[in-house]
């Protein structure tokens, strides 16, 4: 199937405003950085992380659910599951292997190991930021295989922040720095096309009937 031709057909069912919004958002999306959550217990925390990824232009969220399966809370995610690409894994080795094969450095966020601060992270390299369970943090498997460690400086009695707050602080700092560099952090044209097609499908009611109509027209 010619994706561009198919997209042009489907976009005729969208308003011009929606089409332009998709293009604008995609122009700010990146896969240079990505986020991973490992066995986060509270459902609303994972959903909030997804919203944070969308806000800062992170296209992919990787969720490891080794201890117990769960679903993204649609109410808390506020529909953002349509726009952020969610990748689910049953174990952490599978997740780390997949990301390393794509050229990502594994950055473990932890206050308990000699860690780099935000300003010291090399943003020119692709990086996957790992966040662990609310109480215990990341597993030993991640800590042993991490390429680097990252911490958010804290000066009070409390040693940790809510996971979505931590993600927001890190992304706000590092994405902001990234955009001031000459690093090619944008999606490729092919990636934009595939994501735009996916978003368009999710935005159209009765999409199955419309696709069937398109296929019928191709036959004739």
Give a structural overview.
This protein folds into 2 domains: 60 residues, no CATH class; 156 residues, SPOUT methyltransferase, trefoil knot domain (Alpha/beta knot, 3-Layer(aba) Sandwich). The model has no long low-confidence stretch (mean pLDDT 90). Helix content is 44%, strand content 13%. With 220 residues, it is an alpha/beta fold.
Which terms would index this structure?
2 domains, alpha/beta, 220 residues, 44% helix
Average pLDDT reading:
90
Please tally the helical runs, counting DSSP H or I stretches of 4 or more residues.
Answer: 9
Give me the strand/helix succession: HHEHEHEHEEHEHHH
CATH superfamily of the largest domain: SPOUT methyltransferase, trefoil knot domain
Structural class: alpha/beta
How many distinct domains?
Answer: 2
**Total E-strand runs:** 6
And the CATH topology of the largest domain? Answer: Alpha/beta knot
Strand coverage percent: 5-15%
Largest sheet: 6 strands, parallel
Computed Rg = 19 Å
**What CATH architecture label of the largest domain applies?**
3-Layer(aba) Sandwich
Question: Low-confidence segments, ≥5 residues, pLDDT <50?
Answer: none
CATH class value of the largest domain: Alpha Beta
Intertermini distance: 15 Å
Shape: elongated
Helix content: 40-55%
What strand order characterises the main sheet?
Answer: 3-2-1-5-4-6
